[in-house]
Design brief:
- The chain is an alpha+beta fold.
- The strands form 6 sheets. A 5-stranded antiparallel β-sheet has the order 6-7-14-10-11.
């Protein structure tokens, strides 16, 4: 979200926790050197210098204002998909809306739905199906939560997150809470400009229509089966590269003969070439080197520069490629 600052002395992190902890509710988690690998879908990476799970908007606002005053970079973490944590960890404050208070699903009388940013997309689909609400089925199987899907404008099966969004409630890094209508947001492929320097708190969603709950569930099952047949089951961060205009990154990588290419325990999936999977003990360094190889080979064979889709969390790809 913000550029990482040079690593301060360890005592500074300790001092920050000591100063801010008394201002948070007892239910808030706030820790030092929190391991992050297990909080990601690819299970790679180091620790966060500071890590927090606020239980309320007030806790979150307190953390953001304190971090801004101390010059500490802030990095939101959803369910850890679509990103890679560096082996060295993250020099800043990692904030996760992992507490149940952020996972709300509230159907409204007018047919719209309010959903919290911490709600898992899988649960969003299931709850919508039970309520007979269509339009969210394409999100089934994306291993993220609503906040991350808004930040990245997640898409699958021909649908995009912002296809069903009417408004987003967000909090800026200065602690200001605002509600922004969809029409005022700048959204494109895997990007939402308004959430580049803000954190989504939730969104007002617009279902496609009402339908029989069983019919909605059957469509979800169709998408689930298609995803299971076309994507690897091993730990991954999802698609590694963005699709070039009018082309497919997976097809280009496959045509270059890179399926099975491996660096350490990072491997180009044999199931889908735009996935790098963790075969057990892959490191961020392994994955970055494999990304370099893929980009070089595709450039040499096809004259196309593939752009990473996954985030190099806390850093920029330009620093390592």
């Amino acid at each position: 979200m913000t550029s990482a600052l040079p690593l301060p002395p360890k005592l500074r992190w300790d001092d920050f926790i000591a100063a801010v902890r008394p201002r948070l509710a007892a239910t808030a988690k706030f820790s030092l050197e929190e391991p992050l690998a297990a909080k990601t879908t690819i299970r790679i990476g180091g620790a966060a210098r500071l890590y927090a799970e606020p239980g309320s908007a007030e806790d979150l606002r307190t953390l953001l204002i304190a971090a801004a005053a101390a010059g500490i970079a802030v990095f939101p973490l959803g369910r850890g998909s679509n990103l890679v944590i560096p082996d060295s960890g993250v020099d800043g404050l990692v904030i996760s809306l992992a507490q149940e208070s952020w996972a709300t699903f509230e159907p409204r009388p007018d047919g719209r739905v309010w959903a919290g940013a911490g709600l898992r997309l899988k649960n969003l689909c299931g709850l919508a199906a039970k309520a007979g609400l269509t339009g969210f089925e394409f999100l089934e199987g994306i291993p993220g939560n609503l906040g991350g899907a808004l930040r990245m404008n997640a898409g699958a099966m021909g649908g995009w997150m912002f296809d069903v969004v009417e408004a987003v409630q967000l909090i800026t890094l200065a602690g200001e809470i605002r509600t922004v209508p969809r029409a005022a947001m700048h959204v494109d492929y895997r990007h939402c400009a308004e959430l580049h320097a803000a954190i989504a708190l939730g969104a007002l969603l617009r279902p496609g229509s009402h339908a029989d709950a069983d019919a909605v569930s059957r469509q979800i099952d169709v998408y689930k089966k298609k995803r299971q047949e076309s994507q690897p089951r091993d730990p991954s961060a999802g698609c590694i590269f963005k699709n070039p205009p009018g082309n497919s990154a997976g097809r280009l990588i496959d045509q270059t003969g890179l399926k099975g290419e491996r660096v350490g325990d990072a491997e180009v999936s044999a199931v889908h070439a735009n996935f790098i999977v963790n075969r057990g003990a892959a490191t961020s360094a392994d994955l970055v080197e494999l990304v370099r190889r893929i980009r070089a080979r595709v450039q040499a064979a096809h004259g196309i520069d593939l752009e990473p889709e996954v985030l190099l969390y806390g850093k920029n790809w330009s620093e390592v490629l």
